[in-house]
Amino acid sequence: MKLFSKTTKFGMRGGVMLTALAGLAGLALVPAAAPAQTIAVPTADNPFGLPADITIFGKADPDRRTATAVVNGYVITGTDIDQRVALVTSASEAPIEGEELLRLRVQVLRNLIDETLKVQAAEAAELKVSAAEVEQTYQQLAAQNFGTNPEKMDEYLLSIGSSPSALKRQIEGEAAWENLLRRNIMPFVNVSAEEVNDVLARLEASRGTDEYRLGEIYLSATTENRAAVLSNAQAIMQQLQQGGSFVAYARQFSEATTAVVGGDLGWVRLGQLPPPLATAARQMQAGQLQGPIEIPGGFSILYLINKRQVLMADPSDAILSLKQISIAFPPDVTEAQAEIKVNEFGTFVESLRGCGDVDGAAAQFGAQVISNDQLKVASLPEQLRPLIMNLQIGQTTPLFGGIEDGVRVLMLCGRDDPEDAGAPTFAAVMDQIEQERINKRAQRYLRDLRNDAYIEYN
């Protein structure tokens, strides 16, 4: 949509890259007469006692190796990686090639390894996900995307170089992890009534302050791999800024448990976020990205979905009464002719004296009018929302559109603002605190599965 006034447009696309760490090969012998070297002593910040200056022996080129693995006896093939990469790149508007694609394959392999560990752990705990459960979820996704023709899901996946089995494997991994968390994590997470009441009291005290609905892609990092993860996060950010689906890539690559919901953190206040994330969110506008942002334990990329005030009505929930006034152009119209017509249309719109004047005047001018008195602000395109929300009754937006689709304006004829939102329920607050604690324990649980696994790389 093109506005005939200056606007800002934000776009995203996703793609996650992770470079592997180089190995060491060979040792140099030091003559006995050489002066003694200072030995690095292990500390809390340097647990391995690594020296400040090190020499790498041999050429490090890990991304060039064949990216396959055997995880506790389960083989992850090159085809598995190809098909999962196809799922990711299908959401990209621009091709992912060269070194970028190699790094993406490494990250996909890591995800497949984690997925395999989750499936194996669920089977060992007698929590295996049945084929019927996987098929049911697959069919639900097919119906959501292809409506009355869910069988087209198979055709689509094959057309992009993936397969139904690749998506079903991802579904199985997510379901297996959910089963494990439900048995091994959730029963041991407790939240007291006092904690919930304290949160509710603080909410009431902060009434009217801003809260943010954020999406997050979280990548964990340690002292040893910090540089590699940072480089990876920067590559992710670069890809997202080129446009695409934040939700799709958060589902594939975020290491937080919110990955299953596309990285959506829900509505949060700045005080609930780590200070670096709070600082970034405070400066963001809806639709913007920030990152990578270093936080304890790793890096985050944030996407601001929306913003509102605590316990106050959400302006995007307002119900509008609008009239759309539009003109169309014949197929053979020239640019000069269209410009004259647009100028005339602009003059006509300025002459309107309110909603009651629209229908008759538009008929005389030759414009079309469409009315809708039950339109929610949230259902409008993002570019139009701030324009509409700042209008008074009888005022219009700037002209927008083009020669092919026609030029139009929207006139505000009424607005029913939503009532102030009440405090969240006791149960909702308790659930939010529980989810935060489950998320932390789940990350530790997955780390333990990795540490106990036997993984052979080919």
From TrEMBL:
Residues 1-36 form the signal peptide. InterPro entries: OMP_Chaperone_SurA (IPR050280), PPIase_dom_sf (IPR046357), PPIase_PpiC (IPR000297), Trigger_fact/SurA_dom_sf (IPR027304). GO terms for molecular function: peptidyl-prolyl cis-trans isomerase activity. This is Parvulin-like PPIase. Residues 209-306 form the PpiC domain. Keywords: Isomerase, Rotamase, Signal. It comes from the Bacteria. Pfam families: Rotamase (PF00639), SurA_N_3 (PF13624).
